[in-house]
Amino acid sequence: MKWYQMDVDTVEQKLHVTTKHGLSDKQAGQRQKQYGPNQLASEKNVSKWLIFLKQFQDFMVLILLAATLIAGMLGEYVDAIAIMIIVLVNGFLGYFQEQKAEKSLAKLKEMSAPIAAVLRDGKWEKVPSRDVVVGDVVRIKSGDRIPADIRITQSSSLETEESALTGESLPVMKHAASIARDKLDAQDQVNMGFMSTLVTRGSGRGIVVGTGMNTVMGQIASLMVKTKKTTTPLEHKLAELGKILIAVALLLTALVVLAGVYQGHPVYNMFLAGVSLAVAAIPEGLPAIVTVALSLGVQRMIRKKAIVRKLSAVETLGCASIICSDKTGTMTENQMTVKEVFLNGKWLNVTGDGYDLEGNVILNNDMVDRNFPNLESMFLYGMLCNHASLMMKKGKYYVDGDPTDGALLVAARKLGLSHQLYDNYRVVKELPFDSDRKRMSIVVEDDNKMRFLITKGAPEVLLPRSNYVMREQGRKLMRTEDKQEMNLAVDKMADKALRTLAIAMRPLAKEESLHSAVLEKDLTLVGLYGMMDPPRKGVKTAIEECRDAGIKPVMITGDHEKTARAIASELSLLPEDGVVLNGYQLNTMSVSELQNIIDRVYVFARVTPEHKLKIVKALQEEGHVVAMTGDGVNDAPAIKASDIGISMGESGTDVTKEASSLILMDDNFATIKSAIIEGRNIYENIRKFIRYLLASNVGEILVMLFAMLLAMPLPLVPVQILWVNLVTDGLPAMALGLDQSENDVMKRGPRNPKEGIFARGLGFKIVSRGIVIGLVTLIAFMLAYQGNPDNLIYSQTVAFTTLVMAQLIHVFDCRSEHSFFARNPFENKYLVLAVLSSVLLLLVVIYWSSLQPIFHTTALNLKDWVMVLAFSCLPSVLFGFTKK
Ligand code: ATP
After folding, report:
1. What is the pLDDT of residue 245?
2. Cα angle, residue 283 at apex, residues 51 and 805 outer, rounded to 5°
3. Which of 439, 618, 728, 873 could form a disulfide with 807 if both were Cys (CB 3.0 to 4.6 A apart)?
């Protein structure tokens, strides 16, 4: 018998579990050990050896190795071995960089891994989906990906989309009843939920019957095709640039070799020097360092509670010019508290804060109780038409579920309604809440088999559906005056920044149809709730900081226009001449009409998720780089269409998370701002080390080229060139990738996404600094050579030391867009350490007598050092006074 043919009791027995209690933690642990994690077998990892060997596949490195081999065979053992060792160390460095990047990417993937709600030992818990085991009772709701194959045990308007399995993109209704037929295809097993398929509507529960590779999804082999590693636009741009740089480096190196041979240097010497120079000058490590910088930046973002799902988002973040943010939960606390109630034409206040149950219902300073006409039934309706539960943790109440629903539970408890009342009612049907409908309904049956409908939702949505209104004397026909009175009450609440919610009901005749299309009409409006949701701490400052940084924050909310306006004013988000648009106005506008005014709009109220897409499009047409937040399943298209899609870690659905490129672990607007600062900083750091590496390379090539053109001896021998490449390009460049941001990074406007890598004067800085580094090295070499024409090793040591020191001083210059003196050079501890260790290695190479023959060096005296330092400071001092 198949799972879909069994009834729920049989499934429970077979899997030794009950839907009331779930598995025990012990059982779950045992099953995890027995069956392994609930995940599809992924492509095998690339072997570490291969990654290591990959470091040597570069064409020039291969030529260098071949040349070294020849040198070795010709008897130049020392040089050959030294070069081999340096190339090997370089390979290790590249390997470790790549490993680090891989590891942090894997960690990221793990952090954004899906979560499942499971019942263990009678309590609902959230566990990573990979820990779900056969027999687990799971809860699913709209927006979730189903964590494993489940036999559905309970469903409420549950619909799933199984196109990944069946190719059919229309949603399938799911229910719990067993099916007698046999040999059903997946799409006909309507009481089963399949791993990785999507819940598009409603909610439900189920028992896990298959995990990992033992699921229908696991059997589809094609899914296990390795997904290609994607490169970010910057990595792509750099790869393109790399090709040009290789060509230029090769050309210049060829020039050096030709000039050298022409001036009478032995061909073999020039060849080895040329190849070493090419290896040093070609920035083959650039893409790897960029990936490391990106992934290290991403880790810093994690510490600030932002998880980057797509590395490319890091770059785009720095270009964001608009942040469209949800209000509820992102700009506000999402801790709803009912503060006011409008009932029987009277205003009642509810005291107390947050989800604390302390509080009373007050009318004109006097406490009222359940006998106040209609109050008990209004609060009871609010309790029944509800999906949340009140839970206790460390002596404090919190809400599991929608905070709006939670607020209604707390209000009911303040009036003394206990949750035992639930036992008197049975839910027969449910039409779930979503942001498009802006309402939720249930049909309940009481002990006397009397049925009635309860609907709660946005007042403007419920009022047109209501023909009656509840009054002290009972139900009466809704007149125009009653409608006006209700609208006025809604406005009054909204003006105080309260979220408004209406509650209505309809008694149902026994035989009345429960079809969704006909249920929510002819209602009796009972009353209105006004809920407070205070702004989050820190959001106001974050909004100001965004504005200083040239980024416009925009509020998008499903709430009432006036509520949105009031909160936006509280947060100083809405300037005096700022426009507030609502969903009805948006409906009547074309994208181009919207485009005309969109730059003046700061708040969009009463919007549905479809509107969000229209807003994104209009903004993008206006040339903006748009960051858009979202949490519900219907927000996914807008998130996908935006330049930076942002989802909510706490309240978001799996679908929005998958569509997004950034997840906010704390759902907080201020976190978006932190991520943008980090995004800008990472990009600036990448510019910093590109500037450093390329200027150093220009210097290295030029010193050789100038010397050859001037018919001088070689200023640097091959091992020295390779050593410079290894030591100065390695750690200091990495440390620049970890640099702190400049103070004004959030005072500059957003970066133009079309700008090239060398924009904003970077190209000039590279070439000018490079030329001067080359020149000072050459001059130091010439002076040393003139004084000691017989001691070439001495002059080469001077040139080598000057070049290294000039680069190590220049690295501090690269930290600022402005000038060397604009920043405290000791601020970046990693850089100070990297430079100190490079200096130490330099001293070792110069002064350790056993290494001197290998590196062709000799000890320098104090006078030499004065000259070396004077020359090596020159480039930074010279340019320290200009901003160019
Ligand atoms: P955003 O998160 O985009 O700022 P929002 O969360 O306030 O907006 P929605 O959740 O779409 O927007 O809510 C819109 C309206 O729907 C609310 O103002 C309220 O009147 C009503 N509403 C909200 N939650 C519920 C619920 N659980 N049941 C019934 N009605 C609800």
Report:
1. 82
2. 115
3. 728
Task: State in Å: Cα 403 to ligand 1 middle.
Answer: 10
Confidence of residue 46 (pLDDT cuts 50, 70, 90): low
Pocket test for ligand 1, best of 332, 333, 438, 490 (most atoms within 8 A of CB): 438
CATH among 1.10.1740.10, 3.40.50.300, 3.30.160.100, 1.20.1110.10 for 233-301+675-879: 1.20.1110.10
Catalytic pick from 79, 131, 144, 326? 326
- The closest-lying atom of ligand 1 relative to the alpha carbon of residue 606 is 14
d(CA 766, CA 774): 12
Q: For residue 227, what pLDDT is reported?
A: 41
Tokens of 675: 């991520």
Structure tokens at 16: 């030794």
Nearest protein CA to atom 5 of ligand 1, as residue = 558
The residue to which tokens 């899997």 are assigned? 15
Whether residue 131 lies in the annotated active site: no
User: Taking all residues of the chain, what is their mean pLDDT, rounded to a whole number?
Assistant: 87
* CA angle, 327 then 330 then 332, to 5°: 65
Crossing angle of the two packed helices 792-813 and 762-787, in degrees rounded to 10: 160
User: What's the mean pLDDT in 457-480?
Assistant: 95
636 Cα–ligand 1 center, Å: 17
Specify the CATH superfamily of domain 337-532.
Calcium-transporting ATPase, cytoplasmic domain N (3.40.1110.10)
Q: Can you tell me the mean pLDDT for 104-126?
A: 80
The Cα–Cα gap between 325 and 337 comes to 22
Torsion-angle region of 38 (φ positive above 0: left; ψ -120 to 50: alpha; else: beta): beta
Q: Are strands 396-400 and 499-508 parallel, antiparallel or unpaired?
A: unpaired
Q: Ligand 1 pocket check: which of 331, 335, 433, 559 to mutate, most ligand atoms within 8 Å of Cβ? A: 559
Q: Going by CA atoms, what residue is nearest to atom 31 of ligand 1?
A: 457
pLDDT of residue 226: 41
- Over its C-alpha atoms, the chain yields an Rg (Å, rounded) of 35
> DSSP letters along 479-503, please?
PHHHHHHHHHHHHHHHHTT-EEEEE
What's the gap in Å between 438 CA and the centre of ligand 1?
Answer: 6
- Give me the mean pLDDT over the 867-882 stretch: 85
Average pLDDT over residues 676-684: 90
Domain ranges in the chain are 3-43+114-221, 233-301+675-879, 306-332+536-667, 337-532
Closest CA to 321 of 567, 607, 676, 682: 676
Nearest atom within ligand 1 for CA of residue 405:
27
Residue range 690-705, pLDDT digits in tens: 999 999 999 999 998 8
pLDDT computed for residue 731 by the predictor: 83
CB-facing half-sphere around the CA of 130: CA atoms within 13 A: 10
CATH numeric code, 306-332+536-667: 3.40.50.1000
Tell me the fold of 3-43+114-221: 2.70.150
Nearest CA among 119, 128, 117, 115 for reference residue 17: 119
Nearest to 347 by CA among 462, 498, 457, 565: 498
Q: Which of 404, 498, 529 to mutate to test the pocket of ligand 1 (most atoms within 8 A of CB)?
A: 404
CA distance 270 to 276: 10
More confident residue, 711 or 43: 711
Who contacts 79 (Cβ-Cβ below 8 Å, separation ≥6)? 68, 71, 272, 717, 718, 719, 854
Give, in order, the Cα–Cα distances in Å from 57 to each of 61, 81, 91, 244: 7, 19, 10, 19
Tell me which amino acid residue 41 is.
A
Alpha carbons 642 and 695: distance in angstroms, whole number: 37
- β partners of residue 499: 531
Range among 43-47, 394-398, 500-504 with highest mean pLDDT value: 500-504
User: What per-residue confidence (pLDDT) applies to 276?
Assistant: 81
Q: Residue 446: what residue type?
A: D
